[in-house]
Amino acid sequence: MEVLSRTEEIVLLSIWKLQGNAYGVTIRKQIFKITGKNWSIGAIYAPLHRVEKKRLVRTIKSDPLPERGGRSKVYYEITPKGKKTLLETKKVHDSLWVGISALEFERE
Amino acid sequence: MDPINQSLPKFSVWLLARIINREVRYSALGDFAEIYAEIRDNEGLCSARIWLWKQILKSVPSFLADSIYWSGAMLKNYFTTALRILKRQKIYSFINITGLSLSLACCVLITLYIHFELGYDGFHDKADNIYRIIEIETESGKKQYSAATPAPLAPALSEEFPEIVRVVRIFHPSWIEKWRISYEDRTYFEEGVFFADPSILEVFTFPLVQGQQENALREPHSMIITKEMAQKYFGHSNPLGKVLSIHGVQTEITGIAQNVPSNSHFRFKFLVSLAALENPRFRNVAHNMLNNWRSHNFYSYLLLREGASSVELQKKFLPSLERHFNQKISDFDLYLQPLNEVHLHSKNFSYDITDTNSDIAYVYIFSTIALFILIIACINYMNLTTARAANRAREVGTRKIVGASRAQLIQQFLGESIVLLFIAVMIAFILVSLALPVLNSLAGSQFSVNSKNLLYTLGLMLGASLILGSAAGIYPALFLSTFQPLNILRGKLYPGVRRVHFRKTLVVIQFAISISLIIATLAGRSQLEYCMSRNLGFDKENVISIPVRDVQTIIKFDSVKHNLLQNPEILNVARSSSLPGKTIGRRGFLPEGHTWAPRYSMFVDHDFIPTMGMEIKEGRNFSREFSTDVEDAYIINEAASDEFGWDSAVGKRLFWKGDRNNKGEVIGVVKNFNFKSLHQRIEPVILHMLPERSGFSYMTIRIRTQNMLNLLEGIKKSWEEFFPGAPFEFFFMDAHMNRLYDAEMRLGKVSGIFTFLSVVVSCLGVFGLASFLTEQRTKEIGIRKVLGANSISIVMLLSKEFTKLVILSNIIAWPIAYYAVQKWLQNFAYRIDLSVGTFLLAGFLAIAITLFSVEYQSIKASLINPAHALRSE
Question: What is the DSSP string of B482-510?
Fold first, then answer.
């Protein structure tokens, strides 16, 4: 079983949520929506590159677009393996939180 | 419009392309472009630019983290491998590191020395515009250079040519080695007394610690002393305004200067204003010289206007002089020598301001040695690395199959070289700091590693090691990385063996270099021995000379002489104005049937020729029986007689000062004697008599004794009786003559050491190579032994190969060394013939040393029980 790092998880979940409209710019906006933080482009691509290498996402290129300086958009899409890994990661999270009630948390 | 140009600025694209990982570069760049375009359209170009650069800065860490992480992992792996290999193969590592660190240390030392030599006089702020006037006289087609000029020359030139901003004249007579300086009741004899125009402080950079630069030397009887001297004479009290007496002339101290740096071509301790020479008490030092065009005794320095051309200027000098004297001047010219050339390019100048000038040739010689040592160490490294290639073939194969690219392998091997080098650099640094004082004392120089050049030294070492590392590492790296993994892993190919010829070539080069160095050292040594043992035309053994510094000595000479001669061990006592090996003055003479010219001449007395052990070839010595001898008699040497074209010199006329009314006559010819070093041919010299009770510079004593110490003690005693309080100084004639070869002696010692080191380094290499080759042939030796070979034949077999190589190196080295040594010997007018023996000896030494390094391995191999060698198949 593979556990994802927090950044990888965030990136993967953003891609999933974007439902096929996930490429660099939109992923970055999505992450801003979730975390409230403006990640640098570099900070997004490091985990993106890793999850791609682990074959958790695959890429699809669009036609070249003038607003991207003549480059294509590179869309990211979660692979089945990616989904599986996300679920496993969630399971680990959940089991980690078992037994720690919100009440106890507040008492601290 | 091209969409790419429409978007991101080019430079940012270029920069991003460098830092972004190849695999995501395309899409990340697209993102940059898209957001950039969006911001530009909404908020304007300016904020888009700001956003872009902020983004790039913020992205750098994350983009780089990835690649650093991975290459870091590989680097760590390379490093581990390198260290493991170093540890596993202790002998090779030892040889490589020793060789490299020795050669690095040598190179750094030599570079420091060269840097020091080339940097002479560089500390003067205006160094680039300072020139020295050199006189060129053409005598019978040969150019004679002299640094001494008449005092009125420089001011006269300066008046005429606006290019000359300032003029400095310096007076530092070579005929006075030490000056009597007293303060209150203390008297010292000091070197380093210079007289100079006040402008010296303006032209040169000699910062004052105390006193004002503008008027420090303004007054005729003022002087500047160095901090060192201030300490010596006044301790902690303030020296300003104190009065020192120099040869009895009261001189006020108006400034304290920093000690003159060791890389200054003249180093004063006392700087007296030139005007002081007008004082009548200096009459016997500098009589009527300041306005005299005929007295060539001053060193003239010019500060030229920024941008003025010295070459253009010096062309105008001669016409100007001709106008000044209203006559045609032939066989004479002036030349402007740049200040930074004074130290290294004044070798053949007579009457120079200093006798510590070096020669650019030494800089070349040492650079060559440094280069040679580096080459030898590089060759060692290359040879050992490629020879062991076979052992590492498997590693290369495995790495390649696992996916290493050739570039990565090259990186790895270069990396290994660099690791090795860094260890070597550290050791070299320790070696340098240990060796520097030794080298300084050997070379008689004063350079050191200090805070000023520490950075330079470190940089130098790093630079040298990087160059060395890539030079030595690049070949093995290229070579090792070409292996075909399949072949290697099948165990088919031992590529190392293929390169035997290349390695042999390198070994031959290495030994050729070492042998050349050995020959040069041996030849240099025999030339030096020759210089010291050659018959100089006088007997330099058993002669003591006492420099005369005092009028008292001159007045009391006869009684001193009488007193000394009471001692049966003292054979003779003589006076003279100069001595062989000291500066000898030139005076104008007109020989009968020849032309007037300044010629070397010495004042001597009746006893000089017997005391020096010179031989009269023709005629007679000066005699007390002829009262006219004092005024009118001359003794010349054979060279003079030859030059004047006289068959029989005795009775020929010789006019001093070209005055035909003089009754001068030659009464004798003395056999040629070397009054200069053997670098120079014996030139004509004229001896004439010292008038009674006139000034002279040396008192020379011929002795014959079994107990030198006793005798010296005796002489000292009578000296002190006659001259209470005056220090007793003396020198032995033979030691004094040998000092003429100090520079060569130092060169010999230092290059001897470097030669030795280069031989050691190349032997280390051969030792390593031999041990490797023997190891490879263990099985072959085993089989040979089983088949009946005895140990001796196996030793022969193993040594034969290296012997052949060394013989080949000899054949290459001999002509090269012959040429180089001949070139060096050209410096000497009297020199040895290179003997075949020197070459054979060098060759023999090289073979012996090689066999010594090889033999250990081969004997060890030949004694192995063949069963051990063969059982592990």
Answer: T--HHHHHTT---HHHHTHHHHHHHHHHH
